[in-house]
Amino acid sequence: MNTVLPLLEAPPRTLQLPDRAREGLARTPFGLYVHVPFCATRCGYCDFNTYTADELGPGASRAEYAGTAVAELRQAAETLGPDLPTVSTVFVGGGTPTLLAADDLAAVLAAVRELFPVADDVEVTTEANPETVTPASLATLRAAGFTRISLGMQSAAEHVLAVLDRRHTPGRAVEAAREARAAGFEHVNLDLIYGTPGETDADWAASLDAVLTAPVDHVSAYALIVEDGTRLARRIDRGELPLPDDDVLADRYEQADATLHAAGFDWYEVSNWARGEAARCRHNELYWANANWWGVGPGAHSHVGGLRWWNVKHPAAYAGRLLRGESPVQDTELLDDDDRALETVMLGLRLREGLPLTALSEVGRARAADAVVRGLLEPGAHAAGRAVLTDRGRLLADALVRDLTD
What we know:
Number of helices: 17
CATH class of the largest domain: Alpha Beta
CATH topology of the largest domain: TIM Barrel
Number of domains: 2
Shape: globular
Largest sheet: 9 strands, mixed
């Protein structure tokens, strides 16, 4: 059972890590996540912790955000020291990180290098909307040390982008990917969403074909999830749009996998494909391995040695705490051994390598044997002591995780 550790009424100056969380700190892969909570407009399907200019209110601004993020990075170094872990990955996500000036993102990365030991082969990723980057801004980011970019394409069909409330035009994402390659980015990813109301088989095929014209070595494809409280959910509730159909979503996934595999991409996590091991997103692999990371920014989540915490959500509250020299942490929880074992299964089963059967309980191992019979786990891998999803198992991965961990 998780142990929730409530913070004091007045937040402490910095987060205090218990001894248990420090165990193995130097030996465990460590990454930094920097959340940029700004968006030009709110996409209809999105429930992330993001804010348009009209939603920010007083006390927070894009212009000052880089300095605020650096203030939390200083707290992180103080809290984790004196034996700081080496940073192996940095991921700047959002929101739309590239709404900040490229020089601001470069300044945040420079602060990381100033405050932490950084691996020689560090992977540094930024997310970006295609309409918010230019050849000049991409060149600045690359010169600053960014090695990887993930562009939100979602679809090549104009009417699908309209349903999602995306602002870029069809073709811009592919163009931005070419600009990123020209700027020297080592790895380029395009994100897709499938199952949007009104999307046809031909639309999805055209989106996949468009991706393959781009100089990318990584593709992410996610089924549309209708989140409560979003504009998309309200439109569906009013009957303006139909709910995504599960059978259609399965067909879309199989089509994506077949198309990408034929083009030289192999899946390494249920929703992610890469051209070889070097193209995998190492930062996401760090999450899936339940390693350590510090999340910077409003609402960002962190995990170190079984201690999880999350920051206050609104950018003004976040900035105010840091301005006063206080911790931005909203709350914490300490995971026990059972919690961590459960997360290992939940995350590990989604990976191509799967997980050892010994990670499952006795009941879970019996159910894994039954999953082999049902065609959801690979029989050869099971005989060798691992639970590895079959192609059919990938379609039912979430349900299988629940079955193996109940």
